[in-house]
Design goal:
With 317 residues, the protein is an alpha+beta fold. The protein contains eleven helices and ten strands.
């Protein structure tokens, strides 16, 4: 296990809430940047200290090592000068119980900062030229104690109950087609393959937008599935990666939604297929008259297609 310090003032809210780090491969002028290269060195179980606006306010554990990824669309105009291709590292962040201003503690932590590629200047201010910095174990343990963040101790074991779909023959065929399509940039091919099973960049965006199961209200994202609203085989590559084409659902609700046994109006009103046995809804404690939170305007055309498929299923039944 290693300790890392990320300076992400511009993108902190997106990355901490979304559960990831993202950096371009190189500087804007194409020059080598060791603190971007560090993204390739992090490993699952490593600890990340989140520094922004003069304080360390969150601590995270790396869930998955870096993979090529397009720049997150939620960055918007932030980092518009960055390349659209880069590294994505998945991280589970938790708020620090006692957020720390490193500048106020510079006398005690200063001697432990790295001599090269330090995340802080000697005066305690952040080093804007540094994104992800490696720090010593000694400094890492000191910061953990200062921040009082027991939920990310090195003795913690990442949750083993993450919900993942078991790929069937159709899914595996879709993934193979993506991987064989050399007209698509490598970063997109990898993230498209992950998106096909509701993982990677797509899942992070859906979690950032949704946050909980629409029907059950469960907020533990380890237990939820990021499902495409407009089916994968009908969607363009951009739609396949768009968080707006996603909905976060508990596994049993996703099973109904994915097969068009239920759908939603734009205002959140649930519609249930007439052929679905009400015994199923009763046993799964799903109210057929439930109205969930209104969907975003960007989700509307995806939902319209889902309702069309729902209607087609109703006509066939």
């Amino acid at each position: 296990m290693a300790f890392w310090w990320v300076n992400h003032k511009q993108t902190r809210d997106h990355e901490v809430r979304g559960g990831y780090l993202w950096s371009p491969y190189r500087n804007t002028n194409g020059a080598f940047n060791q603190t971007y290269e560090n993204m390739k060195l992090v490993r699952p179980g490593d600890i990340i200290f989140s520094y922004a606006h003069g304080r360390i306010g969150a601590v995270g554990r790396v869930i998955e090592a870096a993979s090529p990824s397009p720049k997150p669309i939620e960055f918007g105009d932030v980092g518009s000068y960055w390349s659209n291709e880069g590294w994505l590292v998945e991280v589970d962040f938790v708020p620090a119980r006692r957020p720390l201003s490193p500048k106020q503690a510079i006398e005690s932590i200063g001697p432990m900062l790295p001599e090269r590629h330090s995340p802080l200047q000697k005066n305690g201010n952040g080093n804007q030229g540094c994104y992800l910095a490696a720090i010593s174990d000694a400094l890492g343990h000191v910061l953990m104690a200062m921040l009082d963040t027991p939920g990310v101790r090195e003795s913690d074991v990442p949750a083993t109950y993450v919900v993942e779909r078991e790929p069937n023959a159709t899914v595996l065929d879709d993934i193979r087609q993506v991987q064989d399509d050399t007209s698509v940039p490598e970063t997109q091919r990898l993230q498209l393959a992950k998106a096909r099973i509701g993982q990677g960049f797509f899942r992070k965006q859906v979690i950032l937008l949704e946050g909980a199961c629409r029907v059950t209200g469960v907020t533990d994202t380890h237990l939820l599935i990021a499902s495409h609203i407009k089916p994968w085989r009908e969607a363009s590559n951009s739609e396949r990666l768009s968080g707006h084409n996603g909905i976060l659902l508990s596994p049993h609700v996703d099973a109904l939604f994915d097969e068009q046994w239920i759908t939603f109006e734009d205002d959140g009103q649930m519609r249930v297929h007439r052929a679905l046995a009400r015994d199923v809804l009763d046993r799964w404690a799903i109210d057929p008259n439930k109205q969930v939170e209104r969907f975003r305007p960007e989700q509307a055309h995806y939902l319209a297609r889902h309702r069309e498929l729902f209607a087609q299923k109703a006509r066939i039944s």
